[in-house]
Amino acid sequence: MQTVVLAAGAGTRMRPLTDSIPKPMLPVAGQPLVAHTIERAVAAGASRIILVIGYESDQVRTYFGNSYDGVPIEYTVQPEQRGTADAVRVASQALADEPFVVLNGDALYDIPALQKLYQNGPAVGSYRVSNPSSYGVLQTDGNRVTGVVEKPIDPPSNLINTGAYVFPAETRDRLDVGVSERGELELTDVLQAVCDAHTVTAVPFERWLDVGRPWELLSANEWLSESLVSEQAGTVHSDATISGSVVVADGATIKSGVTIEGPAYIGSGATIGPNAYIRGSTYICSNAKVGHAVEVKNSILFEGATVGHLSYIGDSLIGKQTNFGAGTTVGNLRHDGEPIKLTVKGKRVSTGRRKMGVVCGDEVKTGINTSLNPGVILSSESFTTPGEVVTHDR
Ligand code: TTP
Predict the structure, then answer these.
(1) What SUPFAM superfamilies does this protein's entry cite (predicted)?
(2) What is d(CA 57, CA 75) in angstroms, rounded to the nearest whole number?
(3) CA–CA separation, 26 vs 21, rounded Å?
(4) How many degrees, rounded to 5, is the angle at CA 40 between CA 14 and CA 76?
């Protein structure tokens, strides 16, 4: 079935990680986030992908080209991010007069449920949560969706909208919606109109993740690392110890005395060791370097990031071309055991995680023996002085 994947957003809640990378291209378990969404769509029955792009769109085009796994990819550009209904309206010009699927390009869906969704249109993917009030909540009558309410104080169900839809062909005539309370043209208003005119089925997802904020990128990496299949295309020293599912991509080098406990993905051109320790859902992107006596746990080191000597990095996101000085240590746990908070668009937000380290933009430089407190955000091109203890964002 023809499938629209929404990937035009600027990803402002992900900053500084999205300073130079569009959110759909953020690295997760060996490939960009939206590649996982597309891979899942293809496994579920997508016959053609229409990718809506906008912010830093060239990076998306360059990565995918004209197809993914034999399925053609076409691009439509949404010039201004006016909302999800507007994004689908832009894509609708490329749609054939047939039912179509819409997926959020920054969401991950479990494949069996996505397959069911493709086979049961008109449909919307639902996910059961204990705190529905902060989401779009589905009104249901048995399996039938009768409506959707945004962030209700008194939610009509525990089923939230996952941003996965199968729409009837005539929905293309319903995409001109009014501006919502939050000032956007929203697909949920389209969904409401479709629910009024058709029988729309709720298809429950067992697993679903909306990747909007930095710690959700870590969660995405944890989830998708579960299905990594070991591969050793790169060079692995005979004195290195590798266990669990570990991908050593072509051109990667694992030096003497390194221990890697998978799942882990070591990208092409990356160098690990000597004597480094990598563990727990870690993705070392291409051309990144992890040197002597460095431990990296449950983290993503973006392209070209370097942690040269005597450092600890836990539960962290380290931006492109960042350089950590020798002895840089990341704190990832509060002594009172409370969940770590992070600042998102100026507001302190609980990550819900007991373990969370730091979020670093591009080209950050830390001085030797820098200590970074849990939940600290370092903006792109910022630096710390030798011996500094960083307790606040910069
Ligand atoms: P959001 O996560 O709501 O928006 P965003 O990606 O711009 O992120 P942020 O709020 O942090 O700035 O978007 C949901 C999905 O819809 C996501 O895959 C991006 C896509 N989208 C578009 O394609 N066009 C749009 O105009 C908007 C608002 C979102």
Answers:
(1) Nucleotide-diphospho-sugar transferases, Trimeric LpxA-like enzymes
(2) 9
(3) 6
(4) 65
**Which residue has the least CA distance to atom 4 on ligand 1?**
9
CA of 112 to the centre of ligand 1 (A): 25
- Written as one letter, the residue type at 85 is A
Q: How much is the pLDDT for 337? A: 87
> Does ligand 1 have an atom closer than 6 angstroms to the CB of 11?
yes
Distance from residue 8's CA to the centre of ligand 1 (Å): 6
pLDDT in tens, 13-29: 999 999 999 999 999 99
Q: At 384, give phi and psi (nearest 5°).
A: -120, 160
Q: Which CATH architecture has domain 2-212?
A: Alpha-Beta Complex (3.90)
Q: Is the fold of 2-212 the same as that of 230-390?
A: no
230-390 falls under which CATH superfamily? Answer: Hexapeptide repeat proteins (2.160.10.10)
Supply the residue whose CA is at minimum distance from atom 29 of ligand 1.
9
Pocket lining: 217 vs ligand 1, CB cutoff 6 Å: no
Length of the chain in residues, anyone? 394
Residue 121: pLDDT over 90? no
Q: For the CA atoms of 285, 290, 221, 339, what is the dihedral angle to 10 degrees?
A: -140
Asked whether residue 182 carries a pLDDT value surpassing 90, the answer given is no
% of residues, the chain, pLDDT over 70: 100
> Rounded to whole angstroms, what are the CA distances from 43 to 38, 108, 222?
9, 13, 20
Tokens linked to 162? 């996952």
Is residue 78 in contact with ligand 1, taking CB distance under 6 Å? yes
- pLDDT of 207 > 90? The answer is yes
ipTM for the predicted complex: 0.96
Reported as a single tens digit per residue, the pLDDT across 309-319 is 999 999 999 99
Cis peptide before 122 (omega within 30 of 0): yes
Tokens of 190: 């389209």
Determine the residue type at 214. Answer: P
- What are the residue boundaries of the structural domains of the chain, listed by start? 2-212, 230-390
Question: From CA 268, how far away is CA 279, in angstroms rounded?
Answer: 18
Per-residue model confidence (pLDDT) at position 381: 98
Cα distances (Å, whole numbers) of residue 130 to 146, 147, 155: 21, 19, 11
